[in-house]
Amino acid sequence: MSTFTPNLNLEKPVPGDVSTADTWGDVLNDNADLIDTAVAAKQPLDATLTALAGLSTSANTMPYFTGTDLMSTTALTSQARTFLAASSTADQRTAIGLGNVDNTSDATKWAATATLTGKTISGGSNTITNLSTGMFASGVIDTDGALTANSDLKLATQKAVKTYVDALLAANDAMVFKGAIDCSTNPNYPAASAGHVYRVSVAGKIGGASGLNVEVGDTLYCVTDGTSSGNQATVGANWVIVQSNLDGAVIGPASVTDSRAVAFDGTTGKLVKDSGKAFPSGAIVGTTDTQTLTNKTLTAPAISSPTGLVKGDVGLGNVDNTSDATKNSATATLTNKTLSASNNTISGLMTTNFASNIIDTDSSMTADSDTRLPTQKAVRTAIRAKLESFIVACSDLTTALAAGTGKAYFRMPYGFTLTAVKASLMTAQASGSIFTVDINKNGTSVLSTKLTIDNTEKTSATAAAPPVISSAAFLADDEVTIDIDQIGNGSAVGLIVELIGNQS
After folding, report:
1. For the chain, what is the mean pLDDT?
2. pTM for the whole thing?
3. pLDDT band at residue 126 using 50, 70 and 90 as cut-offs
């Protein structure tokens, strides 16, 4: 900037002296040029600069505007000076402690492949997808079919679980329902292992043409492991058939003559036989039915209130005695007379009209005679009182028995009154606690004193403590289950339980 220095050595102008006047004029002209030059080098007056000039400065401060042409100062830290001195954005990130951060959006980062270490991922606030078994830490996914580790820190695979369950079922011979079987074509028994169960869907024979008859709803139980497919002769002993409905079951001879009357065989009421008596032709009538007798011989009959008799019926066709009608209408006892059913109508017979011991009211049928006629009540009572038994196989015939519930099961096909129970073993128990069996109806025991089989014995019939039945009445469809409450030394094999009684 130029410095203006005024010339103070000029003569003062003298009034009227032209020479001095010219001298001042020259001086003024010269100084005017100097003033212009000096002023041109000066900063014009500026409000912003004035505001800046008005600041009080100090070390480590920086001016800043607080409004239009208004300024103040703020502290300028070492960190701020380092940031302002940085020559690149990378240096600036380093200056503020973000040197490891790259300029990548979150969306790009989450989509990129990366390895996370030391992170906790919440399944409650995140959606985790596409997990596979290979993503788990070593040893977490367990493929051992025996589940040997028995650990809550491992996850068994589907194959391992199936292998374990299959092995468990096979080892314990658990009942496994294998499906329905159509017996209409008399099929062979299927290949099976102990515990396999089939249900008959169509009636027929099982075990080939010479097999056993089965009905819809019957169940087939395999009791021997590794049983191959075969007929009744080859593998029938490895199967137990439980009938769904015992109606019509007959215990009698292997064959009989058609149209013969049935008679009881013995006095047990359990066996029947061919009586040797053929049924007569025509309809069989009851004591209250109307029937015309033809060519029949009535020995010592007692006929009450006969109707339709005429004099010719008694050999007096030629008799014309008006008093005969009165006689025939009168009450009388005929003795040693033969009445032809073809010529007579005999009606109104009652059980009391028969000779003594012909009408039998004994429901036990003790006489076992073909010359007696049982009353309707006697027949009904005898049939309903006939003892029946449900024989239940509770195990195979080779595996040692173990204590447990649900060893066998069936549903009662009709109302039944339980009168006795029995249990038997294929192989007797040698020693230890007494072998004890319980029978349940709908989950509740029916015995107040359980079935027991003494050591070295094969049947409960010889037990020191006979069983006591506490709930004898069964309804149709009641569930019956068999439990083994207690065993001894584990040598008992082949349990059979019998429920004995009659229909109610």
Report:
1. 83
2. 0.32
3. confident
**Over pLDDT 70: what percentage of the chain?**
80
Full DSSP string of 168-208? HHHHHT--EEEEEEE-TT-PPBPPB-TTEEEEEEE-EEESS
* 366 φ, ψ (degrees, to nearest 5): -60, -35
Measure the CA–CA gap between 218 and 311, rounded to whole angstroms.
65
Report the C-alpha gap between 360 and 362 in whole angstroms: 6
Contact 167, 146 (CB under 8 A): yes
Structural domain spans, the chain: 141-171, 173-242, 388-503
Q: Residue 207, class by beta-carbon neighbours within 10 Å (0-12 exposed, 13-18 middle, 19+ buried)?
A: buried
Cα–chain-centroid distance for residue 113?
A: 46
Question: Distance of CA 167 to CAs 151, 162, 173, 400, 485, Å?
Answer: 19, 8, 10, 18, 25
- Residues 99, 89: Cα–Cα separation, whole Å: 10
CA distances 210 to 216, 231, 233, 492, Å, are 19, 8, 8, 33
| CA dihedral for 405, 410, 411, 413, sign (positive or negative) | negative
Contact predicate 374/286, CB 8 Å:
no
Exposed e or buried b for every residue in 73-84, given b needs 16+ CB within 10 A? eeeeeeeeeeee
Please state, in angstroms and rounded to a whole number, the distance separating the CA atoms of residues 183 and 260.
31
What pLDDT does 324 receive?
A: 61
- Please name the amino acid found at residue 63: P
What is the architecture, at CATH level 2, of domain 388-503?
Answer: Sandwich (2.60)
Give the per-residue SS3 of 32-92. Answer: HHHHHHHHHCCCCCCHHHHHHHCCCCCCCEEEEEEECCEEEEEECCHHHHHHHHCCCHHHH
Q: How many residues does the chain have?
A: 504
Tokens of 112: 């990129």
- Give the DSSP letter of residue 364: T
Determine the Cα–Cα distance for residues 239 and 249; give it in Å rounded to an integer: 20
Question: Under a CB-based contact definition with an 8 Å cutoff, are residues 178 and 200 in contact?
Answer: no
Q: CA 141 to CA 290: how far, in whole Å?
A: 87
Q: Which two tokens stand for residue 127?
A: 């959606």
Q: Which amino acid is at 40?
A: A
- Cα(451)–Cα(467) distance, integer angstroms: 5
Beta carbons of 217 and 245 less than 8 angstroms apart: yes
**For 422-461, what is each residue's pLDDT tens digit?**
999 999 999 999 999 999 999 999 999 999 999 999 999 9
Give the per-residue pLDDT at 448: 97
pLDDT higher than 70, residue 243: yes
Partners of residue 393 on adjacent β-strands: 496
